[in-house]
UniProtKB/TrEMBL annotation, chain B:
Superkingdom of the source species: Bacteria
One Pfam family linked to the record: ABC_tran
Protein name: Cell division ATP-binding protein FtsE
Summary of the function given for this chain in its UniProt record: Part of the ABC transporter FtsEX involved in cellular division. Important for assembly or stability of the septal ring.
Molecular-function GO terms, alphabetical: ATP binding; ATP hydrolysis activity; transmembrane transporter activity
Taxonomic source organism: Qipengyuania aquimaris
Subcellular location: Cell inner membrane; Cell membrane
Topology relative to the membrane: Peripheral membrane protein
Keywords recorded for this protein, A-Z: ATP-binding, Cell cycle, Cell division, Cell membrane, Membrane, Nucleotide-binding, Transport
Family label: Belongs to the ABC transporter superfamily.
Biological process annotations from GO: cell division
């Protein structure tokens, strides 16, 4: 019995740890990119494009939604596009777009951004604002799906754990049927009899829960170290905070509560069949 | 005080059938009065154990009314039954000792169930074991005891909590006549302290040893009282009666 609980708890800790890491990852990715956008002006005529960019920048500087603004120098734009266009004489002939990086006030949402886009369109019909968050949307979507799967997994594990305890309690009940009946006939109340079973399951569940926590947390640490070794900025955003570890430490607590409650209900249900 | 009020047990037209078979008890009506000593006799299979099961609330009757300690136990909520069972002591025909508990712990069970503190247990339990001659076997498991020894543990357990009513099903079936007499004297002592005693037996020698006892007789599931035991006020059984 403690082993079953230990395995359930270890798997739950892993799933919960994964879910928390994913949510941290999503939050940090969103945090880095949120609040920034890029204005793109496509215009073949170099002078006209520069003029449009200047006027748009002037307008945006006045706008309260924009807290920071940087004209991206042409050389930087060229460097950005180099992987696609290559470098050299011929490239100089290709008109590059003008880019303006914006930092947006925190309360700016997609609708406000669309309105901003409408206003600058008056200066340059080709101007577009890309919120960088929208590029990230598919990634965030994928992360969210993974999170939902992890949470469902936790739900399934809790259910399977309760089922395992139910079977174990019924088994113990069958093996002690005579004792239960005797104590019942001597005037033992249902609650008294159930508490005896609860106590023995409680100790099992505590032992299994702690063991499972150690196993699960060990596996989490191992995984975290492996990912840290990848040295990727994205993955680093997924590391667990102290609060996350506290949350993981409550997993065995839930396991104990589920186990004791299930055992109690099982015993009470079978006692109710006696007069 | 009316007869109804002073009764400790009252059966009214009780019938019992197991499953869909014919009734093993039919039209059972009787009243037990506090402080009396009753014998329940009848041939094997007459329904003695079945009647006692109804009495110690292990079995619900198929029909009829039952009152105990002045309360209707048929309509009583289930969670009030344990309190009633604690007011009774039962010697089961098959002893029903808990296999994995020592003789001491078996005898201590009713006290523990009633919430007696551990440090108040040892004295009475050991005294009781001494009384039934098993003081030296306090630590023995039931499996290591003889049939008669197990029966004495069962009796010690039934009387340890000074029940208001003692129900004993063939309590002397496995002991020698000397021990049987000793156990009956124990029941009498308890009876003198106010406990109502109901003993099922077909041992007429034993019945004769308790001259003030009242006799109920079961015959194929119906009850008769050859000595007027069930009348009120109950008539004394003439000593030496052959039922
Ligand atoms: N659980 C049961 N299921 C079905 N029939 C039963 C059950 N218990 C008893 N009986 C039947 O009820 C009848 C009365 O049985 P009971 O045990 O009450 O007799 P008894 O008078 O105690 O007999 P004995 O002196 O042998 O102990 C018997 O015919 C028996 O077969
Ligand atoms: Mg019997």
């Amino acid at each position: 019995m403690p082993w079953v609980i230990a395995i359930m708890v270890a798997l739950c800790v892993l799933a919960a740890g994964g879910a928390l890491a994913l949510s941290n990852l999503a939050a940090s990715a969103r945090g880095e990119l949120a609040g920034s956008a890029t204005v793109q002006i496509i215009e073949a005529d170099n002078d006209l494009r520069a003029e449009q960019a200047r006027r748009i920048a002037g307008l945006l500087r006045e706008d309260p939604a924009v807290t920071g603004l940087r004209m991206v120098p042409g050389s930087e734009v060229a460097a950005l596009l180099e992987p696609w266009l290559g470098s050299g004489e011929a490239v100089d002939a290709v008109p590059l777009p003008a880019l303006i990086d914006l930092e947006l006030a925190a309360e700016v949402d997609d609708a406000a951004l669309a309105e901003l886009e409408n206003r600058i369109a008056a200066y340059a019909p080709s101007a577009r604002i890309d919120s960088q968050e929208t590029w990230l949307a598919p990634v965030l979507d994928a992360l969210r799906t993974l999170q939902i799967m992890a949470l469902s997994l936790i739900g399934l594990l809790a259910f399977a754990g309760a089922a395992a305890v139910w079977l174990a309690a019924r088994n113990a009940l069958g093996g002690n049927r005579d004792t239960i009946e005797i104590v019942h006939l001597l005037g033992g109340s249902d609650a008294q009899i159930a508490s005896v079973f609860q106590r023995s399951i409680l100790f099992d569940a505590i032992a299994g829960g702690l063991l499972g926590l150690v196993l699960g947390a060990g596996a989490m640490t191992l995984l975290a170290n492996r990912f840290a070794a990848l040295d990727s900025g994205m993955v680093a955003g997924g590391s667990l905070s102290a609060i996350d570890w506290v949350i993981l430490a409550t997993v065995p607590l839930f396991a104990v509560v589920i186990a004791v409650y299930t055992a109690r209900m099982t015993v009470l249900a079978s006692l109710r069949k006696l007069l | 005080m009316s007869a109804k009020e002073s009764a400790i047990v009252q059966f009214d037209n009780v019938g019992l059938r197991y499953g869909t078979e014919r009734e093993v008890l039919s039209n059972i009506s009787f009243t037990l009065f506090p402080g009396r000593f009753y014998f329940l006799t009848g041939a094997s299979g007459a329904g003695k154990t079945s009647l006692l099961k109804l009495l110690y609330l292990a079995q619900r009757p198929s029909r009829g009314g039952m009152r105990m300690f002045g309360t209707d136990v048929i309509t009583m909520p289930r969670d009030e039954l344990p309190g009633f069972r604690r007011r009774m002591g039962v010697v089961f025909q098959d002893f029903r000792l808990v296999d994995h508990l020592s003789a001491f712990d078996n005898v201590a069970l009713p006290l523990r169930v009633s919430g007696v503190r551990e440090r108040d247990l040892a004295g009475p339990v050991n005294d009781m074991l001494d009384w039934v001659g098993l003081g030296h076997r306090a630590d023995a498991r039931p499996a290591t005891l003889s049939g008669g020894e197990q029966q004495r543990v069962a009796i010690a357990r039934a009387v340890i909590a000074r029940p208001e009513i003692l129900v004993a099903d063939e309590p002397t079936g496995n002991v020698d006549p000397e021990m049987a007499l000793k156990l009956i004297r124990l029941f009498e002592a308890l009876n003198r302290l106010g406990t109502t005693v109901v003993v099922a037996t077909h041992d007429y020698q034993l019945i004769r040893k308790v001259p003030e006892s009242l006799i109920m007789r079961l015959d194929k599931g119906t009850l008769s009282d050859p000595t007027g035991a069930l009348r009120y006020p109950p008539k004394r059984a003439p000593s030496g009666v052959e039922a």
